[in-house]
């Protein structure tokens, strides 16, 4: 299939409705994963996101307790940053 339109320097198409382009090797690897492996990857990504979010909150609120930081992480996951 030929797709017209702008492309990145590596040849991936750019599309206003497309947020990311998945590398073909990554797509192939994901297709080979079992459902359980895919769920495990989602869990790992969620844990990493929580750690990164907590680190950012900790940096911006050095005076907060760990309980306050974790409460804010949960609030943001449920309701966003507003």
Protein architecture, described:
This protein has a domain of 46 residues. It is extended. The chain has 82 residues and is mostly helical.
Brief digest:
The protein is mainly alpha-helical and 82 residues long.
Key traits:
82 residues; mainly alpha; 60% helix
Strand content: under 5%
Helix content: 55-70%
Largest sheet data: none
Number of helices: 3
From the spread of the alpha carbons, the general shape counts as extended
Secondary-structure element series = HHH
The overall strand count is: 0
**Could you give the distance between the termini?**
43 Å
Mean pLDDT: 87
Q: Which radius of gyration do the C-alpha atoms yield?
A: 19 Å
Question: What secondary-structure arrangement, pairings included, does this model have?
Answer:
Blueprint: H1 24-32, H2 35-60, H3 66-79
Helix pairs in contact: 2-3
């Amino acid at each position: 299939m030929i797709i017209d339109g702008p492309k990145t320097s590596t040849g991936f198409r750019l599309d206003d409705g497309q947020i990311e382009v998945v590398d073909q090797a990554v797509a192939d690897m994901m297709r080979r994963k079992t459902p359980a492996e895919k769920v495990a990857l989602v869990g790992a990504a969620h844990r990493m996101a929580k750690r990164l979010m907590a680190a950012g909150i900790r940096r911006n609120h050095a005076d907060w307790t760990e309980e306050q930081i974790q409460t804010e992480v949960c609030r943001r996951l449920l309701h966003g940053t507003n």
